[in-house]
Amino acid sequence: MANELRPCPCDIGDRFDYGGRGQEVQVEHIKAYVSKPSTSTDKAVIVIHDIFGWELPNTRYIADMLTANGYTAILPDFFVGQEPWKPSNDWATFYDWVKSRDAGKIDKEVDVVMKYLKEHCGAKNIGVIGFCWGGAAVQHLMLKNPHLKTGVSLYGVIKFFDDKSSLLHPTFFIFAEKDEIVPLEQVTVLEQKLKQNTKVDYEVKIYPGQTHGFVHRKKENINPQDKPYIEEGRRDMINWLNKYM
User: Fold this and answer.
1) Distance in angstroms (rounded) separating the CA atoms of residues 81 and 102
2) Which positions are catalytic?
3) Where is the Dienelactone hydrolase domain (predicted)?
4) Can you give the pLDDT of all 245 residues of the chain as single tens digits?
5) Backbone angles phi and psi of 123, in degrees to 5
6) CA-to-CA distance for 81 and 220, rounded, in angstroms?
7) Distance CA 14, CA 123 (A)
8) What is the rounded distance in angstroms from the CA atom of residue 66 to the CA atom of residue 149?
């Protein structure tokens, strides 16, 4: 795990040069990036960003990937105007920074976003995916929110599960074998708790040789050894959504 000087070894990775095909909108008190497919759909996915915020091109690229697969995708600013983490920030201040950005306290914003999707995008079936900080938020929502169809948590810090936790919806967990932030020991404990308590479908998958953020932070063309796993992770994410939505 991280040491005291660098409490979260979370790297922004390869920042994509990507403009996006969607548009920015105001959803009550929240700014959001929305991408819609060319044909109408009643299926929508909420995309929850990592610590680097809703404007990171990499995450918008994934939102547009969902749209290319037939989903309306919305990527809200779940920090609600607070500054995202910057690579130039002092990692020694990370724990204080994240205290005011609790992944388990986004319910109000999720309700606002779901209302928008239903009223303005014709959504009837809504799922959620999230990366890193957003992956932890997905775990929270899968345990607490009764109105979502399914979720995909990508390398989310495991923090909301106790000995009685039971998922409400089918959930897919993507982890990296060499993740310094979410070590495999924690993944093993999570699997044990899910096996004991969960009645709905779930899957925990570990991708060999990969590090934290591999699905949305790595450029396949400059990481050729990782390309098969990046593509597999993205394909698995889409397939899970297709199955349960």
Assistant:
1) 14
2) 132, 179, 212
3) 30-244
4) 333 334 444 555 555 567 788 999 999 999 999 999 999 999 999 999 999 999 999 999 999 999 999 999 999 999 999 999 998 999 999 999 999 999 999 999 999 999 999 999 999 999 999 999 999 999 999 999 999 999 999 999 998 888 888 999 999 999 999 999 999 999 999 999 999 999 999 999 999 999 999 999 877 777 788 999 999 999 999 999 999 99
5) -75, 135
6) 31
7) 33
8) 16
Place of tokens 């040069």: 17
3-state SS assignment for residue 136? helix
Q: At what angle do helices 57-68 and 227-244 cross, to 10 degrees?
A: 50
pTM of the model: 0.93
Contact 110, 142 (CB under 8 A): no
Residue pair 169/148 in contact by the 8 Å Cβ criterion: yes
Place of tokens 């990692």: 91
**Number of CB atoms found within 10 A of residue 7's CB:** 17
Q: Residue 218 corresponds to which amino acid? A: K
CA atoms within 13 A on the CB side of 24: 7
Inter-residue contact 73 to 66 (CB < 8 Å): yes
Give the CA distances from residue 6 to residues 130, 158, 190, in Å, rounded to whole numbers and listed in that order. Answer: 23, 19, 25
